[in-house]
Every structure is written in structure tokens, then in C-alpha cells.
Amino acid sequence: MEVEGLKSGYTAELEVLERDGSRWVLDGQGNDIMMNVSDADESIAEGDRIEVFLYANRRGELTATMKMPYMTAESYGWARVIRVDDREGVFVDIGSSFEVLVNRNDMPRLRALWPAVDDSLYMTLRTDLGGNIFGRLGTEERVLEQITEAPTSVFNQNLKCRAYRLLPVGSFMLTIPENYRVFIHNSEQQSEPRLGEEVDVRIIGVRDDGTLNGSMLPRKEERLGDDAETVLRYLNEAGGRMPFTDKSSPDEVKEKFGLSKAAFKRALGRLMKEGRIEQSEGWTMLK
Fold first, then answer.
1. Angle between helices 220-237 and 250-257 (to 10 degrees)
2. Which of 18, 41, 104, 107 maximizes the CB count within 10 A of its CB?
3. pTM of the predicted protein model
4. Angle between helix 261-273 and helix 220-237 axes, rounded to 10 deg
């Protein structure tokens, strides 16, 4: 049920009429709107005008809470995933008195890219004909209205981001908490992030419109360290010896280590320089 001018999913300023047991009675333009005492500030009193968020309770009655959500039907925000249901979709904490469902039809087609518990979705609120609230992911058009223009000083910085849109060409993200928009081409991803997953992104480009290009790949010097660790891990698992050297074929290296021949040679060179391995007669060995 909706009161004229007052709608589920929106905020309103209402007068406190009286307390009735475990509920406060608010004036909804001549209609009583109830609010549980547990949803109110302790300091409120009769005659106060308070800001509340409106929603439909299980009986379909318009109900109020002072626990304001991170977003409304008129705004966007991040909601933390608290439960995932393969049949229904994803349930999120909007910061108010109840959880909200984001329908499975709004999720990526690949189940592996669905958000996990503690990921966060950038979303707004919508209502069905009965006033029941559900979540709706931010569209690109609306996201562009919410973003902040990034300064050029963020170039080459690492920023925390969350993915709000996933496409075959790449991932669209928003930085936390600045709300800069970042695009990461699929060639700059080691793997595709989940929707809403928080990742560390290196800024590799600042566009004229203040949006950013990013990379999830490590810097060259960091990558060399990771590659060397990959080689050491393989050596330890192989008992300290392996029949692969800087003379091995690119196909062998790619199959066994997932590295390019150039990266493999750099990793071997670093480990030999550090005195951690040696090569002899087609073998690489731990020292």
C-alpha cells in the first residue's frame, strides 16, 4: 500500500505522533505509518519531525525506519553481498532494516563471475507493484552520472576498485572510495574479476574526460619476482632438479610454467645471479 506522495524505496520527513507499545506512529499525510522502536533513534519524541526510509512490510503496509540505506530509489551506492542463491540471485545488505535481493537475471551469464559473499554491488533500489523492494545494478548511463573526474596525479598509482560491469572486451570498475571510473581491457587482466570483487588496479592512463584505464597485471619488476617464485616452486616440487634451462623451447616453457620464453629466461637469470640455482648438462638445480 502506498500513501499519496509517499512511496516505498524513498525517504520522507514525517512527524512523530505518539508511541504505541513497541512502535512509533508517524503522520503519513493523514495516514498512520508505523515504525518499530528498534528502527528509531532513542532520542526521538512526540512532535519531532524525522527523516525516515519507507518500505513495504510483509503485509504490504508502508513502514518507516530511521536506519537509512546506502542507496534509495533515487540514488546509488555499494551493497555488501551476504548470501548467494543459485535460483533466486544475490541477497545484499543495504545498511537498513532488511536485506534486498538482486535478481539472478541481473547476474553475469557465467556462474563463476557472480559475486561472492562480502563482494559489493553498485546498485539502486526498485519496487514491484506491491511496493516490495529489490536491487537493480547501476546502468552505464547512470554510473556516468555518479562518477568523479580523476586527476592526472593518479597515473601509475595502485587504487582499490570494484567491478560494476563485465563485458568480453574488459571490465568496468569504480575506485573506492573516490568513485573514479576505470576500464580494464581483457589483455590487462590475468583473470576476469567477479562482479563486485575488490581488486588492486594500477592506473595506466588518464583520459581527457577524467575516466581511467587500468591494469591488473603486475609491474615488470614485480612480475619478474612472481616468475622467479613460479620457477622455484616447480623446482622444490620436482625434488630440486628439472630438465628445463634457458635453452628449452618456448612451447615446453609455456606448458610447464605458463610463462613466455623471455620471462622464463629472466627468472632463471635472476635466480642464478642470486646464487639460488645452477645449470649443468641440460638440467637446472637448486644450490
1. 80
2. 107
3. 0.75
4. 80
